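Quick illustration, no need to memorize.
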Amino acid sequence: MRHDPGDARASIQRLDWTPAMLAVEWSDGRRSEFASIWLRDNLSTDRDAFSGQRLIDIADLPRSPRIHRAELRDGVLAVEWEGESAPARFTTQWLARQAAALERASDRWRPRLWREGAARDAVRDFAWTTPGTMGADPAAFADWLLRLIVDGVAFLADVPTETGTIVPAVSPIGQVAETNYGLVFDVRSVVQPENLAYSDRGLGLHTDNPYREPVPGFQALHVLVAAPDGGESLFADGFAIAAALRQESPEDFEQLTCTAVPFVYRSRDALLEARRPLIQLSCAGEVIAVHYNNRSIAPFPLTAAAAERYYGAYRRFAEMLREPRFALRFMMRTGHLVVFDNQRVLHGRTAFSSARHPRHLQGCYLTRDSVRSRAALLAAGSGSGA
């Protein structure tokens, strides 16, 4: 049975109100406050009974509803507003759930940063599962998805190595998104590659496709043929590196958050362009995305004075990405599959010799909202703490 986070406080010990606000003291000692306008905006009678969607708009409500009376009756809170005849009713269970949601809103799926990637072990420190375990153990899969979201990277083993098996392997995780590369793309060395990923060069830490709208949310890479030497995978937590930059040089951090970078990709069948900062912040000032792909940056449209300031910050961040301490190194083997947050985790590889040993990976992109939706639904059904 699923645990409701509001259960522990569902009994109301004390009720107070003013015209603008209602305060509840719960049986566990915690206190919750609900604004009058918030309560008026959340009446169950103003939502469709089947879909749960709103039937009204904020412009349909009184501008400043004032609470006239609030009373608890048999586990139901009745609230009367001045100038309105019918009282509204809220169950204590519903209020308890909203109180719990308000408390955890800022902590849900909060990233767990791993700054010293070089000190991490991919097998020991990150989540692993297999395609068979995903369907057989929903609770374990829910925990794997949670760790993918909070750590930014997670792995699968024992994935069949036939071409195209990446799609059924990752479909339980999220919705595969098709791009100009197709539903699935091959990562192997070719003559005259349109993308340097399709060479045997080493690739520095980067995120994929910052020239797209939207930027791919998660990326999956499946090893069909592993090279016996070279081609070691690199991963780094961009959020942790951004946090280090913010601490060490706030001025450089600010430059990278407030300057839009032009990203461009051109091929025979695509011309993709987008502008976004290397480090993207939320309304609360928290890092929510890192976009770094030096191979696809177009000339900056900056004045001479602005360029001098920006290039200093740009260089500092690029040099941090080269510091060995930040990078997790892992030699992925045939049958391994990695999934990572493409707007957080930077990835790269060491060089390899395709003339001596073939190396073949297949990749695809997953939409961010679908991965989080799967995680939320699975957690709700399995009783996971997610």
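DSSP finds ten helices and 21 strands in the chain.
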